[in-house]
């Protein structure tokens, strides 16, 4: 715990604050930030920091404060104060609440640096005028009329560590380490009277305030409620009239459910540092296995430190995050705002990593030697200490103990040209093929910013990029194209509505049928290549779900955050017969854009995160929500069973989140079988506006996590192609009927694009004792390109914990000195030299 309040009792300070009728918060950048200062009402107006505006004298100001001490002040009422902030047209209020009863606030340095200017009254003059005072006077009366809280002995309640979205890890009390900052048990003094009337007061307060504000212009709550209701009604009509959509809305808006969720949170927090929200599956798909029946949970635990725009599981224990260079809470060793971090989900500790270039909207993939490459990015931004990342290649090699950092050497390791929003895929020789992107920033891609080229890392041929007519034809929405290496050593590519097969050996494009919806950024469908199995002769089949059909040729200001996302899936088998049939469509349970498609060890696909309306990005459409181009988050996952007949493939009814995960959110399967969910920041920088910057991490546990699971303890460090290997120390649940071994690439995740996502079922057998499994590695590197994969034993659909195993010998991908020299000498791509680039000799594997 951090040092107490300078020889004053935190509980007594809390008592004094609770007797004050009106509280608000004021930035004071000049003040020290490692202690709490309290200023009680005075006879003079208090100046709003960074502006010439004043506030009335009836306010109590809490200035600065570290995270521990702020968490001890549990008497502040957020919701009513937020309305006062809204009426005065404040932007990005620093207030955050634990639940509907108790509100806490702590002013953090990132906010002070970022939001001094936005903290101005939008329509007032040099000071708060009579109109503003008249408007907020009824609010003051409501507060003053509230009875003084009971002075009964405070009851300690343990709350989730770092449950707030924003905090400052760079400023800590002496002796407070990263680990304790992220995982310490904080205690909040809450009065016994709160516990008795919590749920009752919440619902009554909501009704009372709503009723009162409907007849008064003093508080904008009613207007906001009506606006929200109109948006919700419009979304329901536009999106769906099904019970599922109504259920989704109820999760968000019903006060009883909010109170119930708050109660659940408190109970869970009293037992653990995690907040769990369990729910039974209510509609099991007719073809989904029993492993999907029963209880599923969302558990909110820990913090990513940086907004998790990009995510990759790097070992059996660690997960890496990349963000754009912005004013994140986590600080690096030199005190700068971090934009990359390494998480240990077992302990919820997070460590800052130190890239030097801006990884904003970068792509990523793995080399055959086990090195993660983060690709491209954006120029230096804002006040962060970063370098231009448009041509960057950032390298990270995982270590068992979680040590190590990101390596960059732009003089020798870089791209041939600027790439923002590029994609990559690992090829059969262990190298990366890199596709597309932009050479300059913008909402959507256009001819003059497009980089419709391909290059390799390590470089091949003469090292120069290859022009792609396909990418050019896919304008204006060809960013973050979907790529999958196919079993015949070619590549599937999708951008916008266009699809093709690319032969990277001969530089040949073969066009495929057009998709019925737009799938790449900013329309952002979830996409997977369905499992490759011996039973289907490793025949590839591609699935996309969601996305949008908004016209990508109109101006962004004519697009709407309320336009329904696509509600269909499109699926095609990549053989002669399947291509002749084209994309086969079916209807989803609802509308979804920016949904992550996660392959699970039993071969199912889980769709998680996203929004029902709008599109990816921020600050573009006319009716932004906060800064977001999208609205109406999808809070509940859906399960897709590929083997079921069309129309019967979806299972719904799983546990729901309470956190909007929209633009710049990510999700991934973990080795232990859970789904980790992080990120969401549809904003230009760290903010607490609606759809705020989100650092909270959640773990979704499917029903199979609560069933008896198989295990294995011994496994090889490498699996060679078409070679036998054994898993020993196997335990199987009683009466197991079928056992499979699945090999999964857990992928690099960003913008609803799981780069290199892949699952292969291996040929296997179980000995008579049920303790040894003999299996055979993938037939070749076309089926599973060389590099790390995770091996799961699946018994009757229920998976074991997966373990990371190197597929192949772990050697480096082929390198060519000539190609590297050509890549380093290339002057960069622009539209004016596209014809010259297009004539480059095709790459032939090195």
Describe this structure in words.
The chain is α+β, with helices and mostly antiparallel strands. Residues about 1-270 and about 830-845 have low confidence and may be disordered. Helix 3 packs antiparallel against helix 5 and helix 7 runs antiparallel to helix 10. It has 14 helices and 50 strands. It is about 15% helix and about 25% strand. It is globular. The longest helix is centred in the first third of the chain and has 22 residues, at about 190-215. Among the domains are: about 290-705, Methylamine Dehydrogenase, Chain H, CATH 2.130.10; about 720-805, Immunoglobulin-like (Sandwich).
Strand order of the largest sheet: 15-14-13-12-43-44
User: What's the architecture of the domain at 290-706 in CATH terms?
Assistant: 7 Propeller
Give the name of the CATH superfamily of the domain at 290-706: Galactose oxidase/kelch, beta-propeller
Percent of residues in helices comes to 10-25%
Structural class: alpha+beta
User: How many helical elements?
Assistant: 14
Shape: globular
**Count of distinct strands:** 50
User: Could you name the CATH topology of the domain at 290-706?
Assistant: Methylamine Dehydrogenase, Chain H
The level-1 CATH class of the domain at 290-706: Mainly Beta
Distance between the termini: 57 Å
Radius of gyration: 27 Å
Largest sheet: 6 strands, antiparallel
Low-pLDDT windows of residues:
1-272, 831-846
Which range does the strand content fall in?
25-35%
């Amino acid at each position: 715990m951090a040092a107490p309040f300078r020889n004053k009792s935190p509980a007594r300070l809390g008592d004094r604050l609770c007797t004050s009728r009106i509280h608000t918060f004021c930035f004071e950048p000049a003040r020290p930030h490692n202690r709490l200062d309290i200023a009680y009402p005075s006879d003079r107006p208090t100046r709003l920091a960074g502006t010439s505006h004043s506030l009335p004298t009836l306010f109590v100001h809490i200035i600065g404060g570290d995270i521990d001490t702020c968490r001890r002040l549990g008497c502040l009422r957020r919701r009513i104060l937020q309305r006062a902030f809204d009426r005065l047209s404040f932007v990005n209020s620093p207030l955050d609440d634990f639940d509907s009863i108790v509100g806490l606030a702590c002013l953090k340095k990132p906010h002070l640096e970022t939001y001094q200017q936005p903290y101005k009254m939008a329509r007032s003059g040099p000071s708060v005028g009579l109109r503003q005072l008249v408007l907020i006077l009824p609010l003051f009366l409501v507060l003053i009329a509230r009875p003084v809280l009971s002075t009964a002995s405070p009851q300690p309640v343990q709350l989730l560590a770092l449950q707030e979205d924003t905090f400052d890890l760079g400023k800590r009390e002496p002796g407070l380490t990263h680990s304790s900052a992220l995982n310490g048990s904080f205690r909040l003094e809450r009065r016994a009277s709160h516990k008795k009337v919590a749920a009752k007061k919440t619902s009554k307060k909501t009704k009372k305030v709503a009723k009162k504000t409907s007849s008064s212009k003093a508080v904008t709550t009613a207007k906001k409620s009506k606006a929200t209701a109109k948006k919700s009604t419009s979304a329901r009509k536009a999106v769906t009239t099904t019970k599922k959509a109504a259920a989704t809305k109820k999760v968000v808006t019903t006060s009883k459910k909010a109170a119930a969720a708050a109660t659940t949170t408190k109970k869970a927090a009293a037992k653990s540092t995690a907040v769990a929200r369990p729910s039974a599956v209510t509609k099991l798909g007719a073809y989904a296995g029993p492993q999907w029946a029963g209880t599923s949970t969302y558990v909110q635990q820990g913090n990513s430190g940086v907004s998790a725009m990009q995510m990759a599981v790097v070992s059996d224990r660690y997960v890496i995050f990349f963000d754009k260079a912005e004013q994140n809470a986590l600080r690096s060793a030199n005190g700068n705002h971090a934009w990359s971090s390494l998480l240990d989900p077992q302990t919820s500790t997070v460590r800052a990593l130190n890239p030097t270039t801006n990884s904003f909207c970068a792509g990523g993939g793995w080399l055959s030697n086990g090195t993660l490459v983060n690709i491209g990015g954006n120029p230096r931004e804002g006040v962060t200490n970063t370098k231009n990342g448009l041509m960057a290649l950032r390298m990270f090699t995982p270590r068992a103990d979680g040590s190590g950092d990101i390596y960059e050497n732009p003089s020798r390791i870089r791209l041939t040209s600027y790439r923002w929003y590029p994609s990559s895929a690992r090829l059969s020789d262990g190298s990366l093929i890199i596709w597309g992107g932009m050479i300059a920033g913008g909402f959507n891609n256009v001819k003059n910013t497009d980089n419709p080229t391909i290059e390799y890392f390590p470089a091949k041929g003469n090292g120069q990029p290859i022009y792609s007519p396909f990418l050019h034809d896919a304008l204006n929405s060809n960013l973050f194209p979907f790529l999958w290496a196919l079993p015949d050593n070619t590549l599937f590519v999708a951008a916008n509505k266009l699809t093709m097969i690319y032969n990277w050996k001969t530089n040949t494009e073969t066009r495929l049928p057009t998709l019925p919806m737009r799938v790449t950024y900013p329309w952002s469908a979830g996409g997977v290549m369905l499992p490759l199995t011996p039973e289907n002769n490793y025949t590839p089949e591609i699935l996309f779900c969601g996305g949008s059909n908004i016209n990508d040729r109109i101006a962004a200001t004519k697009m709407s955050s309320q336009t329904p996302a696509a509600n269909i899936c499109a699926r095609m088998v990549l053989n002669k017969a399947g291509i002749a049939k084209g994309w086969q469509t079916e209807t989803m349970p609802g509308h979804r854009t920016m949904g992550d498609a996660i392959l699970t060890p039993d071969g199912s696909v889980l769709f998680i995160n996203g929004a029902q309306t709008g599109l990816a990005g921020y600050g573009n459409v006319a009716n932004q929500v906060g800064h977001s181009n999208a609205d109406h988050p999808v809070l509940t996952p859906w399960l897709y069973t590929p083997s079921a007949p069309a129309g019967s493939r979806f299972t719904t009814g799983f546990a729901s989140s309470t956190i909007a995960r929209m633009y710049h959110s990510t999700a991934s399967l973990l080795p232990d079988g859970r789904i980790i969910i992080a990120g969401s920041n549809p904003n230009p920088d760290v903010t607490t506006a609606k759809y705020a910057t989100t650092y909270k991490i959640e773990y979704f546990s499917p029903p199979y996590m609560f069933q008896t699971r198989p295990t294995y303890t011994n496994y090889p460090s490498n699996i060679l192609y078409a070679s036998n290997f054994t898993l020993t120390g196997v335990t199987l649940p009683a009466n197991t009927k079928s056992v499979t071994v699945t090999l999964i690439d857990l992928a690099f995740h960003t913008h609803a694009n799981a780069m290199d996502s892949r699952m292969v079922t291996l040929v296997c057998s179980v000995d008579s004792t049920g303790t040894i499994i003999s299996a055979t590695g993938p037939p070749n590197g076309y089926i599973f390109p060389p590099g790390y994969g995770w091996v799961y034993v699946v018994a009757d659909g229920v998976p074991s914990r997966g373990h990371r195993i190197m597929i192949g010998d772990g050697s480096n991908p082929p390198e060519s000195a000539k190609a590297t020299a050509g890549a380093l000498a290339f002057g960069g791509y622009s539209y004016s030299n596209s014809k010259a680039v297009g004539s480059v000799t095709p790459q032939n594997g090195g």
